[in-house]
Every structure is written in structure tokens, then in C-alpha cells.
From TrEMBL:
One Pfam family in the UniProt entry: OprB
Family according to the record: Belongs to the OprB family.
Protein name: Carbohydrate porin
InterPro entries attached to this UniProt entry: Carb-sel_porin_OprB, OprB_Porin, OprB_sf
Domain of life assignment: Bacteria
Length: 615
């Protein structure tokens, strides 16, 4: 109320002063009143429903569009008598508009903005993200990585809909829909990579290159704008994917060189997200439910996809080692509740119902299988985060820890040593094992069913230096470190560690470019190692150079040529902002122990990642 009262007092004072000044031609105050690009005009015009009247010296508020004011302007020798409204010339007879009452809330909002006290919605990103890379759907997960601030005092609504910069930024039909709360986006991500080193000989491997990518369609609806349902939004995302990963050619089956590969079902349109979310209390509480990816909200970060390797871009592979943690583009039925007790902390908990075969074409090729016939249990992840801002430059950081237990059945390729209690089970086959073919099907100890699993993670990223670039207010040098652990008895990957640096806006001449370097370490679980050793010791693996290798098959569980222990990837990339909505990123990757296998030579790759946001 205080802001509204002060605004009314100032506006009344200005009206009286300008009215008095305009009775005498040539008055300095009259010139000031006529020529001011009025802050009040912006506040009054938007609430009156009528476009503003413009002179050569700026907007005239509806309060100033009185016959005396217009006549005085037309006859002043030092003033231009031409008036425009919405860019069109206005004849003198229609230039006069009656004064209308200003909407108090809108006027106050305009006053606050012009005085440098702009109210922040709980997203601290601008409404249009210039140069920020993000496949469709990625900006939705950024909402868990942004401080609350003080909420939106005007509408108390949800966060703004995603609006990345685009090749065709302002098409009339799309702008008309956005004004009514309906956003459509179409983009393409393409990734090419090729080995520049020769592979290990005698195993049927080869040196080669391949291309993969996806086009995606996204629809987001703000139902407050569309139908007056405050805080409610819906999100639909579908993709079409193509190509294969090049790193498979030299034997890596753990960290694909192209993260965009796989899971799309080889169909024109594969449905991914189909869910709604409700934002309450200025962002203090957010509830989402529908067809969702578990790892869109949990154990993830928008920093990851500055890179191309699948060690952690997309979704970290250690977290997605089990089918129960649905990963983009796989989804399951679920719900998630996120609360923010303070501006810089949050806690979120979810409940998801994983389905067997979500990545296979037999059960979920198109993404439209909604009946839940293959639901196998319940996953209940929980994550707590701290999002501080340090120093005078308000350097943002994100620190989060999470835990995800599940009750699903697991028949994974892990080894359980024979004993009196399980001796009769040691020769059971592995049901529904997508990576075990031919020789690797029957492995002693691998048929034991387990119905409890868990994973644990810690993620941290911190901006350590801010770059002063006008176009990228979030630009700066960011360091990150991530750690993931899985229950060894139900996972092929036991752990993953990653760290790196990402810098945006470091070059004043190229403020929208980004450079990054990352390193990841992946270690197998001891159960995986024991099972593969048993295969080798008991003659279950063909000899090197046999016809089996020449056919392109891998002899051991999980598509391995030797016992899987550990492997690492080093990646360096430079993302070039080519033009509005277009980025191109040359990329270098180096594999230490490809596929966590010491029997394979290290490999180096060159490639690129491009992204085009059409609208």
C-alpha cells in the first residue's frame, strides 16, 4: 500500500505541475512535460487497454492527451506536430483520448521496475536465454538448480516457460500463443565422432566414425495465462532419434561417445514427458505428476550437457545403470514434491513406478504405453540441496546429496559364489538380459533374484569467477565435482567420479561462447568382476581370434572382451555461438581402458556437437 500511495502522490503532483506549465507556451516545465518519455505513460497505458499516443519526444500518457495539450503541441514552433500510435500516423481529430483510471497493481509494478527495484520471479534466469545451450526439456531441469529469491509479488505464479534464443525467434503465430501461455519449441541436436587411433587387433574391432542425433518437439502451457488456473503448468516432450555411437566400434560399452544415441525406439515420434506441475506460495512448493524421467529432477545438473560423452551428459550412466531409474528418453509413472524452506535450500522426494523394458522396443517403442502392466516395484528418491551465493559478485553454487532405494526385482549379471544354500541356483539363466547373448547367457550364480536396490550421489558446482558480459548474466568460470555409488550386487557400474571446468563469457569479443574440460572415472562392481573371471576360468569365453570374435560378438557378460575393472574419459570442447539459435562445438575425447577393459588399447576421438533451436 505504501508503494501505491507514493505512486499516486507523485502522479498527482506531476499532473498538476504539467497542467499549470502547459497554460503558458515556451515554459521550460512545459517542454519537460511534453518531451519526457513518461514512466507514468507506461504504467497507465497498459492498464487502460488503449495504445499510447506518441510524439517525437516520447510517449504521452492518457492523462496528457487532453485537447489543450494536443493543440499546444501542434502550434509550438519547436515541436513536431506528428502523432503516432502503434507505429501508425494519427490525425489530429483522433489524437485526443479520454483519461482512464490506471490499474494500481500494474502501475506499481512499472514504478518499481523503473526505479531499479525489479521484482524477481523465483527463477533467476532471464525470460529469454541468449546463447545458453539446451536441448528441449533441459531447461525444465534447471528449475531445481536456481535459488528461490523472493517470489513474484505481482502474480504469485509459477516460473516462466522455457524460452531459449531461436533461429526463428518471433514468428507471429508463436508470439500470439506465448502471450496466451502456450509455448511450442522445435530443435535438433546432432553429434558426430570418429576414432583417430586404431583399435586392439584380433577382436573384430575397427576404427571408424558415426553420426547420431535427435529432433525434439516440446509444448509447455501456462494455465494461469490460458485459463486462470494459477501456478499450474503442463509439459509434453517427444523426440525422434537416429544414428549409432562410434565408441562401440573400438569396444567401449560403458561411456558412449555420443550421449544422444539410443532409447528413441526408431520411430518418428517417441513420447517422453507428459506431466503437469503446480507451483504454490511463490515457488516455496512445487508438485509434479505424470509420465516423468526420474533423473530429470534427481541426480542431475544442466552443466553436464556442455559435453558430449555419455559418462554424465544426458543422465550420469552410473545412476542409470538400473532400469528402475528412468532416464531421458525413458519415462515411468511418478510424482515429485519439492519444497524450499529457505531461499537457498530445497528438499525433494519422489515416488516412481519403474517398468521393465522401458528402453526396449518390445514394451515401450513409442512411449505411449500407459497401462503399467510391467511395473515391477517402487522407487522413492530423496534429495536435499543448498544453493548459496558467495561474495560481492553473488557467485552461485549448487550442492546436493541424494539417496534412491527401490523394491523392484533385479536379475542382473552379477556373481553370487556357490554355497550350500544357493548351489542349485548357480546355473540359472539370466532372464531378459539385453546385453547377454549366446555364450554369456548361462553364468554360475547369476540367476539369483534380488528385490532391493539403492544408489547414492553427491553433486557440487560452484562459480569461482564471474565474467562481466552483458549478454550472459550467468556467465562465468564454474567448477564441478560429482560422485555416484550403486549397490554392488545389482549393478554393473559400482561407482563414478567426475570433475571439470566450464567457462562462458570469458572472451569479450565472443561473450556467448563456452569452453569446457572434464574427466570421469567409472569403476565396475565386484560382482561383475567375479562373474567375468568365472567365465574365463571355466572356459566359457571363446579364444581370441575365433569366429565368434570375427562375427562382432563380445564373449563376456555386459558385452566385454575382458574383465571390467575401471575406465576413464577425458573430454575438451569449445562451443561456438554461430548465430541466434545455432551453436557448434568441436570436441575431443580420450578413453583410458575403453569399456573399463585393460585388454583394449586407449582410444582418441574427434568430433563435434551442434544444436539448432528453430523456434
Amino acid at each position: 500500500m505504501a508503494a501505491f500511495s507514493m505512486l499516486d502522490i507523485l502522479r498527482n503532483f506531476r499532473r498538476k505541475a504539467c497542467g499549470t506549465a502547459l497554460t503558458g507556451a515556451g515554459s521550460a516545465l512545459a517542454v519537460m512535460c511534453l518531451g519526457a518519455p513518461s514512466l507514468w505513460a507506461a504504467g497507465e497505458g497498459s492498464s487502460s487497454g488503449q495504445p499510447l499516443l506518441y510524439s517525437a519526444h516520447g510517449a504521452l500518457s492518457h492523462a496528457m492527451q487532453a485537447p489543450g495539450v494536443v493543440a499546444q503541441t501542434q502550434h509550438s514552433p519547436d515541436r513536431q506536430a506528428l502523432f503516432t500510435r502503434d507505429g501508425q500516423k494519427v490525425p489530429p481529430s483522433s489524437a485526443v483520448r479520454k483519461d482512464t483510471a490506471a490499474d494500481a497493481k500494474q502501475a506499481a509494478s512499472t514504478f518499481i521496475r523503473n526505479m531499479g527495484m525489479q521484482p524477481h520471479p523465483y527463477s533467476n534466469y532471464p525470460s529469454e536465454q541468449f546463447g545458453v545451450y539446451g536441448e528441449n526439456g533441459r531447461e525444465l531441469l534447471e528449475r531445481v538448480n536456481i535459488p528461490l529469491h523472493e517470489g513474484d509479488p505481482i502474480t504469485n505464479d509459477g516460473p516462466p516457460l522455457p524460452r531459449p534464443e531461436a533461429l526463428f525467434q518471433k514468428m507471429r503465430w508463436n508470439e500470439w500463443l506465448r502471450e496466451r501461455g502456450v509455448a511450442f519449441m522445435l530443435d535438433n541436436t546432432n553429434e558426430f565422432a570418429g576414432a583417430i587411433t586404431s583399435p586392439t587387433k584380433g577382436l573384430g574391432l575397427k576404427q571408424g566414425a558415426s553420426n547420431s542425433g535427435q529432433y525434439s518437439f516440446e509444448n509447455d502451457i501456462d494455465w494461469n495465462k490460458l485459463a486462470g488456473i494459477r501456478g499450474f503448468q503442463t509439459h509434453i516432450i517427444g523426440v525422434g532419434r537416429y544414428g549409432i555411437s562410434a565408441s562401440k566400434m573400438f569396444g567401449d560399452n560403458v561411456n558412449p561417445s555420443q550421449e544422444i544415441y539410443g532409447g528413441g525406439g526408431n520411430v518418428v515420434f517417441h513420447l517422453i514427458h507428459f506431466y503437469g506441475e503446480e507451483t504454490l506460495w511463490g515457488g516455496r512448493l512445487n508438485i509434479a505428476a505424470g509420465r516423468m524421467s526420474t533423473n530429470t529432477d534427481f541426480a542431475n545438473s544442466p552443466i553436464y550437457c556442455n559435453f558430449m560423452n555419455n559418462a554424465f551428459c544426458g543422465n550420469p550412466k552410473a545412476v542409470t545403470d538400473s532400469y528402475t531409474r528412468s532416464s531421458y528418453p525413458g519415462t515411468s509413472w511418478g510424482a515429485r514434491v519439492r519444497g524450499r524452506p529457505t531461499n537457498s535450500t530445497y528438499i525433494q522426494v519422489g515416488i516412481y513406478f519403474p517398468e521393465r523394458g522401458i528402453y526396449g522396443v518390445q514394451e515401450n517403442r513409442t512411449g505411449f504405453k500407459f497401462n503399467g502392466a510391467t511395473i515391477s516395484g517402487v522407487v522413492t528418491p530423496i534429495e536435499a540441496g543448498w544453493e548459496p551465493e558467495f561474495g560481492k559478485q553473488h557467485l552461485p553454487g549448487h550442492y546436493k546429496v541424494g539417496f534412491a532405494p527401490d523394491t523392484s526385482d533385479h536379475y542382473l549379471g552379477v556373481y553370487n559364489p556357490p554355497n550350500r544354500r544357493n548351489g542349485w541356483r548357480t546355473l540359472m539363466t539370466i532372464p531378459n538380459c539385453p546385453t547377454c547373448q549366446g555364450v554369456g547367457d548361462e553364468v554360475p550364480g547369476t540367476g539369483k533374484r534380488r528385490n532391493f536396490n539403492w544408489s547414492l550421489w553427491f553433486l557440487a558446482d560452484q562459480m569461482i569467477m564471474r565474467n562481466k558480459t552483458q549478454d550472459t548474466p550467468e556467465g562465468g568460470l564454474v567448477a564441478f565435482f560429482d560422485a555416484y555409488w550403486n549397490k554392488a550386487a545389482t549393478a554393473m557400474r559400482g561407482k563414478l567420479y567426475a570433475f571439470g571446468l566450464v567457462d562462458t563469457g570469458f572472451w569479450p569479443a565472443r561473450p556467448l561462447d563456452t569452453v569446457g574440460v572434464s574427466f570421469s572415472y567409472t569403476g565396475s562392481s565386484r560382482y561383475t568382476r567375479d562373474a567375468q573371471r568365472f567365465q574365463i576360468e571355466h572356459g566359457m569365453a571363446p579364444a581370441p581370434g575365433s569366429a565368434y570374435y570375427e562375427s562382432g560378438g563380445a564373449p563376456l557378460m555386459w558385452g566385454s572382451y575382458g574383465v571390467q575393472r575401471w575406465g576413464s574419459t577425458l573430454e575438451a570442447t569449445y562451443r561456438i555461438h554461430v548465430m541466434r539459435g545455432v551453436t557448434f562445438a568441436p570436441d575431443f575425447q580420450y578413453y583410458f581402458n575403453p569399456g573399463m577393459q585393460r585388454v583394449l588399447k586407449d582410444a582418441a576421438m574427434l568430433g563435434f556437437k551442434s544444436h539448432v533451436q528453430f523456434f
